[in-house]
Every structure is written in C-alpha cells, then in structure tokens.
Design brief:
alpha/beta; 44 strands; 38 helices; 8-stranded antiparallel sheet
C-alpha cells in the first residue's frame, strides 16, 4: 500500500515554495521536519529547504504545528516553484517488530473471494502485504491500527486500503484471525505501527517440517508398522511377479514381417522353427491374465535377463512400445499372427542390419501403473504433495490441523436444492456436504446402498464452484477405481451448466459398436438451449452486448449515429447502475461526462476559422516583432477572450498559454539581450491547429481519435471487471462465453468443454496419464484444488493414492467399506506373508481397504486426540422397499456397530403387481435336488439357472416397464444362466449378450434404462433394478458338521464350504440391488443348517423374512 491509498485519514493539504529543483513523482511519501523554525523536505536521502504558504484552508503556522506533531506526508504535485503536500497526524506512533502468521484458512478465504488467483499461502502473504503495509526504507514497514477503549490486549485491528484485518495473539505469536471490508466506526484511536512488520507462512506444511512431528511418526511406525512401506513392498512384489512371468517365456527373435489380411494385423516370421515350437509351449503353459499382450522391440528390456535388481528396473517407461495380441501361432509356417493394440496402425519394429527384432511378454501396463504408484507414494512420503499432512493421516497419527475455519459454508443454494427430491437433502446429506465444503484436508463419506451418495457428490461439485471466486476451470478431479464407476458419476456432473469431461476411457476394439451420437454432442444441444434461457432470464448480458455494439457505432458511425449512440450508452450505464450497482470509476465517469457534452456547432466552427488569419499574424521574429508584434499579441488575446465569452463551452486558450501572450505584450523591446521566441512559436502553432478546419474526407472525419478509442475500451473493460466481481454476473459471463464456443462448431464442443469445465473425470490410474497432463500441468505435477474419489473402498491403496497425492485443498473419499472391497493378487499376498519380517499387522494392512482404515483411524483420532470430524455416514436409503432396507441395515451395518439406515420413501412407491408375488417384497426359491458342480475353476448349479431363466422371462414379458438383475457369486453360474436364457423357448440372450428386445426399457418412468443385466456381484455395485434374482449355487456335503473343530479349523472348513457367501461385503451388495422385489434361489438345507448361522448369518435372517407376511418360501 502507498501512503496516499490509505483512505481512513483526514488529509490536510499544505502549500510551500521550493526554490531548488525537486524531482519527485506524484504520491510519493516524503518526510517533513523543522529545524530552527526552518521547514525541510526529505526524500531519498536528499533534503530541500521549503517555505510554507498560507492558504484558504490552512495557515503556514498551523501547517508548522502539524509538522511538529510528526505527521505523515506525501507529495501530490507542483506548479513552477510551488509544491503541494498532503498528510495527516496519527494519534500515536509505535515502533515495534511484528511477525504476523498466515495459515491455510485465510488463504482459502482470499482465494474464494477472488483476491488471489490460487489458493496459495505465498500469494496470500503477498496480497496482505500489499493491502496493509506501507513500505519504508531499510526493510522497515508501516501499518495503521485502530484501538477501541474496550479492545482486548491480545487483539490488533489493522486497516488497509479497502479492508480491515483482525490479528490475535495465539500461543505466543500473532495470527491473522479475520478479514472484512467493513470500515471502522465509533470512537477509536488511529495508531501508526512502524518497524519490521511482515506476514509469514504459518501453514500446516511449515508446522510439519519440525522435529517433534518426525519423532511422533517414527514412534508410530515402529509400533504399528509403516502403512506406505507395506504398499511399496506390494508394488515391488507385483513387478517382480510380472518380470518372473515374462522370463518364463523369455524372448523370441524374429527376422521379418508382412501385412496380414486385415488392417492392424501382421505376420512376423522366425528363422528357427524349433524355437517357435518351444515358444508356443511356454505361451500355452503361461498363467496368462486377461488381455495378455506381447511387445515387439529392437532390443530386449533390462528386466528380461535379470542383470539388474528387479525392484530398480522398469521405472523408465517406454512410451512408444509396439504391443499386440497373439491371434495364432503357426509353427509349420514359422510365423505368428499379431493384432496391433493401438487404433492407428503401425509397422512392427525391425533392425536393418542384421534383420531382427525381439518379441517378449508385454508388462507395459504394469510398468506404467507402477511408475504412477511409486511417484504418488514418493510424493506423499516426502510430503511434497500439495496436502503434506496426508502422510500422517495415512499412517494414522495425529496431525496439525487448522484450528479454525474463517467461514462456515452451508450446503444450501438454489442449484443444490434442485438436486434433491423435495428440494431438501436429508440431515446427514447436509452434514456430508458441509463437512466436505469446510474441511481443510480429508473428508470421508460412507454411503450405504441407495443413500444418495451420487447426489451428494454432485451437490459438492456445485457448491465448491459456487463458493469459489478463483479460477474454477479444471479445479475438481472426479475419480474412481474403474471406468464404469467414473462414467456413472460423471454422467450426473453438470456444474454451472457445464458438463464434466471424461479423460481417458476403455480402449475400444474394432468389433465394438461405434455407431450412435457422441455423448458430448448429444449433451451439447439441450445445454445450449438451457444456457440461453438462463442468460436471457437476466438482462445483464444483453445490456453488455448492447453496450459493446453502441461503442462500436460510436467509433465508426456518422454524426447522427454518434449522437444516438451517446444517448444509448448513457441509458445502458444508468440501467447498469440502477439494477446491478455497477458504476464507472471516477476518472472514466468524468471523462464520459465531458465527452458526451454537445460538440461545437457549425457557427462555432465558422468563428474558429475566422480566428485563423488573426492567429497567423502573430510575429515570431525580432525583426518583425519590433514593428507591431505587441499589438498582434494584444489582438490575439482580445479575440480569444471575446470568443470565450460568446462560446462558454469551448476553450481555445488555456490559462498557462495566456501568460505566454501577456509576457510578450509587456516585453521590454529596448533590452539588449536576445529575445527567446520559442514559447510564442509553440503557442502560435498550437492555436492554429485548434482552429484549423478538418479537410479530411468525411468517412475519415467520422473516426474517433486514438485516445478516445482507448478511453472507450477502458470503459468497456471497467464495466466488465466490475461485473466479474459479482458471483452471479461472473457466472453468466462465463456461461455466455462458453455458449458462444459451443455454437461456433460442434466439432469444437469437446475442446470448449475441456477448457471451461470445472470437473475433469478419470480413473485413479488415468488421473496421472498423458491426456490429463496435457490439460492440467502445474510445476511438473498435476494438482487439483479438490479431489473427489467415488467407490473409494473398491480401489486398491496403490491406485487411490495417485489422485490423493494430487489434492491440495479438499480430498473427499466417498464409498462404503461394507460393500465390495479392493481385490489383491493372492499369489503376491502369499509370497509377502512368507517373508521373515512380515508381521500380522502388515498382513492386516493389505487385507483392509484404505477406505476402512481411514474411517477407523479418523474416528479414533476424533475421539482420542480431539482431531476435527472427518467421517460422516449417510443414513437414509431411497432405493428399496422399507422392509428390505431395514433387513440390509440390521444384517450388514447395525451388527457392525454402524448407525441404523432409515428408509426415505413409503412402501407405496414400490408396488410392482407381479403375478405370483402380489404384496410381497422377497422370496426364497428352494432347489434341493442337485449338488453344486464344477465349471472349470468355478462352480455352477444348472437347476437354479434354468428356474431363474424361466421366471425372469415371465416377469419381463408380463411387466415390460420393469428391470431385472440376475446375480451370482460364481462366473460358472453366470455362464449357465446365459446358456439357459439362450434356449429358443426363452430367448433372452444370444451367446453372452442380451437379446435386442430385452436390452432397454421402452416404456414407463425408467424409459431408456437397462432392462436386463446378468453378472457376478462385481458387475452390480452402484446398479439397481426393480427385481433382482440372486443365485447362491452352494450346497453342503452330506453330514456336514463343525461342532468338534477348534476355531481355526472351523474357520477354514466353513470358508471351503460356503465360499464367497462368507464374504459379508459381497453378500451385502448382492442383496441390496433391488427396488421392489428380491428373489434368492438356493439350497434351503444349506440356509437352515446350524453352521450357516455362524458362517453366513444374513442368509437365515433372509429366510426368516421370506417366511413372514412380506415374503414367501416356495
């Protein structure tokens, strides 16, 4: 801040004479002092004697008294030897050194209010310094404080250019507590503070760089294990396993290639048929994973022959690898048919001398994944990620937190209300939204089935952008563990009228259906219409567009048009001030008032032309001046004075110029020294220019001069900038600009959305991919102000830490640890558990989802360490019939000491009227005559599959507006169900695909929705259907008994007997997908067996429910 920008002071203006040459710019601070009644001005180590003048507002003696009182002064301007100074006298001056702490809370407020471009502590300290501190010499500063009589001694109130800052003493240091735009009122003392005053970073990042935090972390990891190190070991073990598998087949050298029968297909040839036969055997014996590919290269990779430590290899990712699927191995022709993995075809790599290349197992994907995982782990461990305290939270230790939130944000806004049925979320949904908005780091939202977590996610996106005045473009990352989950949540993202943009996606092959409208284009048309209606509902945009149009006409229009445009512009300015409180700045308003005054008439122009001969007659040489030069000067002066009397609005001769004429009128012509006519020559030329007629062509005369055009540009910019400070108008302006981009070309829609959207969506892995880096690169790291992870309990910690490492301000995890957990490789788990130093706690760290770990740790820290609340559970389900909702609550949540889940909809919303199930919500179909059978490595039970196929067909044909889901825990049973449904008498499927007529609902309230889905539990999380069939498959051996076994033996036997049914999370998902009717098929004897009560207690509970008034066992 400059001294002249301090608006609170009552300024006094004094006038003085300074005979020495004074070179000071306007508004520079100066020091005035007295010595033996002589007044001096000090500026930049130069001292100038000055003589104070008395004026109409202050006498010289009063001015001296102000100087004696040690006032603060700044230079305003000068006229010849006269200088003008403004200043004031604070009631007191105090010398002190003061460090003022700035934390994340104040940075958040400044960023949200648009004071700083980014939520950044350094930007916040810079802004506060500029607003509140006046820079002095030698690293000293000055600030202005106000003191009230009843003010606490632990409080300082600073006043800046436009804001007031409240500073409080906290634990031995001063910290910024509040900032506001209110001005001081009442009786107070104004005190100038002077010394080494500075704002300093006191963020959590700074606090965590201390010894005590490091000691606490080491003690915790020594006692409880290092969570991040466990996952580093798992990542390394994954890579070692991939390398082991790659070494099983080693490499195959090929000598040439040729294009095959189809684009993207290639033959590669080998010279040694025996080597190819050996490769074929190894390939067939390899425990190949899904979508296994090979890679072709000019060289073999460093990891293939194990020359290097496996853990240290593979981190240099080869981005241009040539990868392909093996279609067929033909030893007889000494060749292999390959299908290139990328969309754009490319020749296989081949050395020319000698002619050779190398084929080996591609572990490219694992390589890329490992690199991203290791980068994220390293950032978090070193606390170089944007949220340094995340490392401590992952380890489960107490971390420094911002003790306050300067602004408590609420969930409510018209947009967020519209997202919820009835315009109001549940109490817990409100709590979840507000917890996420006001969090300074991590928020965990537990969302049991049907509790509206997707609505909460959408509401959070909406409110985050509404509350932010900083750039919201690409500020939110929306991510999840897999593509379907990302697509599900991003489809509902529509922040500020702009869709979220999906980055990356499933790789398509040529056999997939690529027809149909691109989702972005499909989305764009109604969005353009909606934005247009929204913009037109508020006339600001139309006013601003009209203003731009009238300014353009003013620049280039004819005289009559210019006059009309001036009237129109004034009318628009009046409307902007009346409706939106938008006023021109003082200087521009003054210019506009002068500009719009009527211009000179034709008679004025004629009079000015008549002055031309008089002005031209001025003598500017001594030889002619001695004749009648004085008379000519008198004539010019008299003529111009007469003109001024007649035309009061038009000024030709300025006051300073009149003095030049008067000087030459009273010139002593008898003096011997030479006369300097330069001032008179300059004046003569200026006056002639002002009176000359405009001889340019009329179309050129119409154009405004450059200075006026610049002023008009400034006028538009001034209105634009003031409107941008209003959240509502800034929103409309962004939408209008965005709509223009959409209208220009449908081909540019995706690019326009990518530029303007607040939300980018990607899987956890693709959040760190090349496509994301192209859109969001900052300091070589991808950083998001806000990261929201959906289905967070399903992602492995290695994957979920990738987006977590990108979060700066808010990290919001949404999921349910009582539903499907993350999946790990059993072989790698077993290998790690066999290590000598592998402890039980480390095994538990692998088995427990990161989501569940954080839920338990955050609740413990809140209870034991008084850490802020970070966990909230949604407690009202809207998906299913209340009877089924209560069953899920009791058997999967309340029995795990979690809150009960209420039902938010009445029973009447779930009437299905299916024949055979009238008034029922559940049923158990007992099929006891057939044992479970092996189906490859899985299990199936054909009798269950056939009954489900027939019953699903009957319900679908009877109720075409209803949807049906068929779930089993075993892939073998899913294959049996597809086969049973393919029966010509049923005709629901063809191969492993749903028949066309049964894919989509064609009528009713869910028109366009999925009509039939068949799959394992994993394919159903996040899905819901009107009717759901669950096939249990499992049967028990004859005379099954576990009573005499010890606990360990019993647990092993029960797991072998019940298989996936014992996985509580999976059973929860299977039994919570329905809206109106849940039908379970299985062996009733298994469910009624005494061991089932211990092994799978939810199944006997369901059978009991079916035996009551709301169900049936048949």
């Amino acid at each position: 801040m400059k001294l002249h920008e301090f608006k609170l002071a009552q300024l006094q203006v004094v006038q003085a004479e300074c005979l020495e040459k004074l070179d000071i710019s306007e508004n520079h601070q100066v020091h005035l002092f007295l010595e033996d009644e002589q007044c001096y001005l000090e500026f930049e180590n130069h001292i100038y004697p000055i003589e104070l003048n008395s004026t109409s507002s202050i006498t010289a003696s009063s001015a001296k008294e102000l100087i004696r009182q040690n006032g603060l002064w700044f230079f305003t301007h000068k006229q010849n030897t006269k200088i003008f100074l403004s200043g004031f006298v604070p009631e007191a001056r105090t010398v002190l050194d003061l460090d003022i702490a700035v934390d994340e809370a104040i940075a958040h407020v400044l960023a949200d209010d648009g004071k700083i471009a980014l939520n950044d502590i350094q930007l916040a300290t810079d802004w506060l310094t500029e607003e509140f501190l006046v820079g002095l010499d030698h690293s000293k500063s000055m600030a202005f404080s106000i003191f009230y009589t009843n003010q606490s001694e632990y409080q300082i109130l600073l006043v800046g250019q436009n804001h007031q800052l409240e500073i409080k003493a906290i634990q031995g240091y001063w910290q910024v507590d509040k900032i506001s735009q209110k001005r001081p009122r009442g009786n107070y003392r104004l005190v100038a503070l002077q010394g080494e005053l500075q704002f300093k970073d006191h963020s959590i990042a700074k606090k965590m760089d201390n010894l005590s935090h490091e000691i606490s972390l080491k003690e915790h990891t020594a006692q409880h294990g290092d969570y991040i190190d466990v996952w580093k070991q798992y990542s390394n073990a994954q890579w070692e396993d991939a390398v082991r598998r790659a070494n099983q087949i080693n490499y195959l050298k090929y000598c040439t290639y040729e294009s095959a029968h189809k684009t993207g297909y290639w033959y590669i040839y080998v010279e040694d048929r025996e080597r190819l036969l050996d490769f074929e055997k190894k390939w067939d014996r390899l425990d190949r994973k899904k979508d296994e590919q090979v890679q072709l290269s000019l060289t073999t990779p460093d990891w293939l022959d194990n020359k290097l430590d496996v853990k240290e290899t593979g981190l240099e990712v080869e981005k241009k690898s040539w990868r392909a699927d093996i279609i067929q191995i033909e030893p007889q022709n000494k060749r292999i048919l390959l299908k290139f993995a990328e969309k754009k075809d490319q020749r296989p790599p081949l050395n020319q001398n000698p002619m050779q290349g190398f084929l080996f197992l591609s572990i490219f994907a694992i390589n890329i994944q490992r690199k991203r995982q290791q980068d994220a782990l390293d950032l978090i461990t070193s606390r170089r990620n944007p949220m340094p305290r995340l490392h401590g939270l992952l380890q489960g230790i107490e971390v420094e937190t911002s003790a306050r939130t300067l602004r408590k944000e609420k969930w409510k806004s018209p947009k967020t209300k519209a997202l919820f049925k009835g315009g109001r979320p549940t109490i817990k949904q409100q709590e979840a939204i507000e917890l996420g908005l006001n969090s300074s780091d991590l928020t965990i939202i537990i969302g049991p089935p049907g509790t509206g977590k997707t609505q909460v996610i959408t509401a959070l996106q909406q409110r985050i952008t509404e509350l932010s005045n900083e750039s919201i473009q690409r500020s939110i990352l929306l991510t999840s563990y897999q593509h379907d989950a990302v697509d599900n949540v991003v489809d509902r993202s529509n922040v500020m009228g702009i869709a979220g943009v999906r980055i990356g996606g499933k790789s398509r092959n040529e056999d997939e259906d690529l027809h149909g409208v691109d989702t972005i284009e499909k989305w764009a048309t109604p969005i353009q219409r909606d934005i247009k209606e929204l913009i037109e509902s508020n006339d600001f945009i139309n006013l601003y567009r009209n203003l731009e149009e009238q300014v353009l006409k003013l620049r280039f229009g004819h005289t009559e048009q210019k006059e009309k445009s001036i009237v129109e512009i004034q009318s628009i300015l009046d409307q902007l001030s009346g409706k939106y409180n938008i006023y021109l700045s003082h200087d521009l308003k003054q210019w506009w008032e002068d500009f719009k005054k009527p211009k000179q008439s034709l008679s004025v122009t004629t009079k000015m032309m008549e002055l031309y001969p008089v002005l031209s007659s001025l003598r500017t040489k001594k030889s002619s001046f001695v004749d009648d030069g004085v008379q000519r000067c008198r004539l010019v002066l008299a003529s111009l004075q007469l003109f001024k009397q007649q035309e009061k609005t038009q000024t030709i001769l300025l006051a300073e110029e009149q003095k030049v004429l008067e000087h030459f009128i009273y010139l002593n012509l008898n003096a011997s020294e030479d006369i300097d006519f330069s001032a008179l020559i300059e004046l003569k030329n200026k006056l002639i220019d002002r009176c000359l007629p405009d001889f340019r062509p009329e179309n050129i005369q119409r154009l405004l001069d450059e200075n006026t055009c610049q002023k008009l540009d400034n006028l538009l910019k001034d209105i634009h900038d003031k409107a941008k400070k209003s959240k509502t108008l800034a929103h409309l302006m962004t939408l209008d600009k965005y709509r223009y981009h959409l209208m220009t070309s449908t081909g540019d829609i995706r690019e326009a959305i990518a530029h303007y959207t607040a939300v980018l969506a990607a899987t956890c892995q693709q959040a760190a991919g090349n496509a994301m880096q192209d859109l969001k690169l900052f300091d070589k790291k991808i950083i998001f102000e806000n990261v929201i992870v959906d289905e967070a309990a399903r992602a492995t910690p290695l994957d979920i830490m990738i987006p977590m490492a990108m979060a700066k301000r808010r990290l919001i995890l949404v999921g349910d640890h009582r539903q499907l957990p993350h999946m790990l490789d059993e072989k790698i788990e077993k290998k790690l558990s066999q290590q000598e130093d592998w402890k039980t706690v480390q095994r538990e760290m692998l088995e427990q989802s990161l989501f569940q770990r954080l839920v338990e740790n955050m609740q413990r820290l809140e209870k034991e360490k008084q850490q802020p609340q970070r966990v909230v559970m949604l407690d009202t389900q809207f998906r299913m019939h209340p009877i089924l909702g209560d069953f899920i609550s009791k058997n999967f949540y309340e029995n795990h000491e979690l809150p009960a889940i209420k039902s938010g909809r009445p029973e009447t919303d779930f009437i299905h009227a299916i024949s055979g199930y009238e008034d029922l919500v559940c049923g158990f179909k007992s099929i006891s005559h057939e044992k479970q059978q092996r189906f490859g490595t899985s299990w199936h039970r054909p009798s269950e599959a056939q009954w489900i196929a027939q019953e699903a067909k009957r319900i679908l044909d009877e109720k075409p507006a209803l949807s049906v889901g068929v779930i089993s825990f075993y892939s073998g049973q899913i294959q049996s169900i597809f086969k049973a449904m393919e029966n010509p008498q049923i005709g629901l499927t063809v191969g492993n695909k749903i028949t066309e007529n049964y894919r989509m609902i064609a009528s009713g309230k869910n028109i366009g929705g999925e009509r039939l889905r068949i799959g394992t539990v994993d394919a159903f999380q996040g899905k819901e259907f009107d009717v759901v069939f669950v096939s249990l498959v499992r049967t028990l051996p004859n005379e099954f008994n576990v009573e005499r076994l010890n606990d360990l033996e019993k647990d092993e036997v029960l797991t072998r007997a019940y298989g996936f049914l014992r996985v509580d999370n999976r059973l929860n998902v299977a039994l919570s997908r329905q809206r109106s009717l849940l039908i379970v098929t299985g062996d009733k004897e298994l469910v009624e067996h005494p061991a089932t009560q211990e092994a799978v207690p939810a199944l006997p509970a369901f059978l009991k429910l079916c035996g009551g008034q709301h169900g049936e066992v048949f």
